Amino acid sequence: MPDVQPLVSEFVLKLKRRKVEGSHAVARQTAELLRSVVSQHRMGSTNQAAALADAIRSVGEQLISANPIVGNIVRRVLHIIKEEDISSTAVGIEGLSVTVDSDDEYDSGNDDHPTLSAAVLASHARNALRAPSLQTLLDDIPVSTALSRSASSTGDSDGKTAGDKSLKTRKLKHDVIAAIGDLIEEIDTCYDQISEQAVELIHQNEVILTLGRSRTVKEFLYAAKEKKRSFRVFVAEGSPRYQGHVLAKELVEKGVQTTVITDSAIFAMISRVNMVIVGAHAIMANGGVIAPVGMNMVALAAQKHAVPFVVVAGSHKLCPLYPHNPEVLLNELKSPSDLLDFGEFSNCMNFSTQDGTPLLNVVNPTFDYVPPKLVSLFVTDTGGHSPSYMYRLISEYYSADDLVVQRKSTS
Amino acid sequence: MSQKKSRGGAAGAGDDAEDLSRSPLQAVLLADSFTLKFRPITLERPKVLLPLVNVPMIDYTLSWLETAGVEEVFVFCCAHAQQVKEHLEDAGWTGQPAAREMAVTAVESHDAISAGDALRVMYGRGVIHGDFILISGDTVSNMSLKDALQEHKDRRKKDPLAVMTMIIKHSKPSILTHQTRLGNDEIVMAIAPETKELLYYEDRADGSHLCVTIDKDILASNPTLQLHNNMEDCYIDICSPEVLSLFTDNFDYQHLRRHFVKGLLVDDIMGYKIYTHEICSSYAARIDNFRSYDAVSKDIIQRWTYPMVPDVLSFGNCHEVKLHRQGIYKASDVTLSHSAQIGANSVIGNATSIGEHCKISNSVIGAGCCIGKNVIIHGSYIWDNVIIEDGCKVSNSLVGDDVHLRAGAIVEPGCILSFKIKVGKNVVVPAYSKVSLLEKPSNEDSDEELEYADTNSGVTDSPPFSSMRSNAGRPAVPSKDDDLGASETGTSGVLGYIWASSDTGTQEDWRQSIAPIPKEKLQEMQHAVSVDDDNGSEEDLNNRQYEQDHDGDSEISVVEDDDYTKFEKEVEETFQRALDGIHEDNLILEINALRLSYSLQHADCAGAVFYSVMRSASVAAQSTNDNLLKTTADALAKWKDLLRNYTKTVDEEMEILLKFEEMCQETTKEFCSLFSKILPYLYDKDVVSEDAILRWAEEKENADEADKVFVKQSDAFIQWLKEAEEEDDDEEE
């Protein structure tokens, strides 16, 4: 894809240099990039969906290596392609199930992807839990073969009329682009949809505690304020980036009673709080939350005093991965300069007079992992959910075989 | 494209976009350090391509420039130009311009031997049109240039003479060693606090005397100025195009700091000004020597350079690196034995295998290395494709590409093993050795990186230390020097030339090597510092009267040398020359000339000359009091004519007495006890008259006790003088 490659590498560089930050911006720009990848993709006559998915994968791989947080959107787009493809095939052809068996046997011979095998097994396990729908029924077939099977069968049936085929080709592409457009819109409008639920959750004269600054939380509180709810907000400043200060300013501008506290005062203040509302960086498949650093402390404090801990996040933050290994935690250690002034401490880092061993270490993680048992409620654009329901929600947005975004070697 | 995009990513660049539209932001990157500090490695590979935490240094610099919004970079290659160009091509910096926001052009020149020459070549090309960033290819930074550029541009609008903005960073020098953690000498700068104009720059400040010399004009023309010794020069400069023409006009400018910056600061005819910009939270440092290589590597591992850290910024064809707990970075396919212990702050490159029971700590290991069993690596930098066999021990050393350490070899701290060196079984490479396959050039060849006459250079001019090179086919032939000690088993040695010996350990060796400074050296220095401190405070007292109004921001006690002390020094130097046999008349002429040029009084001259005489006496005397008295008497006898030449009036004689007293109290205390004995001698030789002595005694009547010490000491003599005078008076009557 020579036409999109410059765009992709530019975005990859931006991600690498951490020039694009904030989940909303990243999600939106990734989706836009992938849309242009799709629209510039030249459709072949056969295996369209697989080729398209491959194109997305190859781009997705680069993006994820630059910054793993874009993985959600890549997976969403892959899922969209699959869904659109399947729905178009399902509508177009009757008696698909008859051809499936024969193709299946044929494909399993050469379509063996060791890298995906774990994912395939996982998908089997998961599919049992899915709600019965047309797609999931079809998905139940070993997934790695599903794509090529359906695509090749499309090709077979399309072979009859050329005009029909080109129409199909355009239709699939058009559908995918439209669906990605929907996704972008969803990313943009998630705030409104989440905020609509604010009045139901925030009651008169309540005290809300939040940590740092999350746009979703801000909109959520704004919405409650607009509905004439009177409440007070405690804002923990969220060291070391102190985004809480910004949030406090914004809230005061809207006329919300705001109190700024240090992060270390959270435990002391929590007993006066009716509800904790925080944003998230990502929501994992087990209902755990990746959130700005310090959040675990807030969650523990809330649990200790039985204060509801509510996480508000758009559905693009749902991540189909499980936090079983540290790499999946999407954590990132930032520069110690947020904490310390280099100049003041430079004599502590004079390796010539020490034993060559750095005596001063600074750890500045960006995120915390909050286990699901500490979360009382998730508020997403589709409504409120308990942590144990997250896997279900996630399976509606993602295909199980996309967990590992890696280009298929054979195609 | 979308509103969000313009708000998020492009907003930062948006502000300077208008400015940049006039002329694209350019940068000149010097891919040559023009020093010899990284020899012998730089004989085979240019310094900018040396891996810093497994990534060539120049990639850090280029990607920072790209992040900072530079649109066009000229990479000036000199030594090993071909290698630099190939690297730029391979890493995707040059070629396919569409993929990059920044265009990189290599400029090659083989006859440039200094940064000055390089800039003259750049001027000759005529490619620089607007403000540009001047940076060396060994600089690591993550700062944002936006503010500094804006400041520079605003200043330029107001004052076209502001040609350069220097980026500086707050950093404390080590109290013990009087050098920064980067191994270079501490820099003393004088900066006007409001305008941030740089008024004075000294990178070789004599730390041992805690003394800087600042021109009086600077003090006179600036109501306040701040002296900093806690600033680090980042060697990132924002320059106006005039800088290039300045270099061309002054063809003797070689070094950017020592010649150019100092030249501009001293030269007030053109009135060009240099300003500074201090960065606070971001990081910038230049790798100047092995010590800074070590320090910057550790900073990168500790993530001060974020996002330029191994796991975030993977350049070009580098493999993915993951960060584990305790600052351990591992590439994706490392083969690690279960029993191997990887300590904190280590980096292990791609396709490297590490055997059983290895212990690795604070080290960087490159790609494709093969490390056997029971190997201990501490604080070292192992580059690519190194083979280390079982039981080796490497500490605080740098091991180049394709080096082979056979079983049991020990590399002691501070060693530099250049490319393809083979170290035999159980051989001990002594501390601070530099080993290379290439012979040490006996005379500095202009093909290579060449440092202009620099007394402080890290490489001594001694002939090649070891020169028995084996034939290429036969590995590990004993070629080590005999003086390497009995630890060598004798079956095999080191294949290559050993450049520097270990036992002497010149100062540069331990100061600027990767190894930490040895304990005993530290103690020595500590001792030296405490002595210096005494001296410093005395001088401070001594000169306080001359001190003008300035902000005492600096941490060292700064002594401002005014004209008089300078004059005194020059007189002393002249006098020293006179001791070597210049005729007295000439001496008087010279001193008179000095007096005129410093526009001082005869009295000042008298003091200075007397001081010089006494100093020469005390130097000759070798401490014992009898000797001292004798040599002083000799010196006075010899130079009485010279002194008399200046002691025409009582005032001048007084000056001598006061000077003498001051010397006894402060600088040369050995005269202290001899004051009363020397005073009559001065009287005898007609250097001072009795009037002067009496007036001196009178003046001291009202002084406090401390000042009266010498009056009391010579009480008897004064009494005698008084009586003699009375007698004279009587006689007259």
Automatic annotation (TrEMBL), chain A:
The keyword Glycoprotein does not apply. The keyword Protein biosynthesis applies. Pfam families: IF-2B. SUPFAM superfamilies: NagB/RpiA/CoA transferase-like. It comes from the Eukaryota. It is found in: Cytoplasm, Cytosol. Keywords: Cytoplasm, Initiation factor, Protein biosynthesis. GO terms for molecular function: translation initiation factor activity. InterPro entries: eIF2B_beta_subunit, IF-2B-related, IF_2B-like_C, NagB/RpiA_transferase-like. GO terms for cellular component: cytosol. Belongs to the eIF-2B alpha/beta/delta subunits family. Component of the translation initiation factor 2B (eIF2B) complex which is a heterodecamer of two sets of five different subunits: alpha, beta, gamma, delta and epsilon. Subunits alpha, beta and delta comprise a regulatory subcomplex and subunits epsilon and gamma comprise a catalytic subcomplex. Within the complex, the hexameric regulatory complex resides at the center, with the two heterodimeric catalytic subcomplexes bound on opposite sides. This is Translation initiation factor eIF2B subunit beta. It comes from Brachypodium distachyon.
Automatic annotation (TrEMBL), chain B:
SUPFAM superfamilies: ARM repeat, Nucleotide-diphospho-sugar transferases. Keywords: Cytoplasm. It is found in: Cytoplasm, Cytosol. Residues 561-731 form the W2 domain. GO terms for cellular component: cytosol; eukaryotic translation initiation factor 2B complex. GO terms for molecular function: guanyl-nucleotide exchange factor activity; translation initiation factor activity; translation initiation factor binding. Component of the translation initiation factor 2B (eIF2B) complex which is a heterodecamer of two sets of five different subunits: alpha, beta, gamma, delta and epsilon. Subunits alpha, beta and delta comprise a regulatory subcomplex and subunits epsilon and gamma comprise a catalytic subcomplex. Within the complex, the hexameric regulatory complex resides at the center, with the two heterodimeric catalytic subcomplexes bound on opposite sides. PANTHER family: TRANSLATION INITIATION FACTOR EIF-2B SUBUNIT EPSILON. Belongs to the eIF-2B gamma/epsilon subunits family. This is Translation initiation factor eIF2B subunit epsilon. The lineage of its organism: Eukaryota, Viridiplantae, Streptophyta, Embryophyta, Tracheophyta. The gene is LOC100823064.
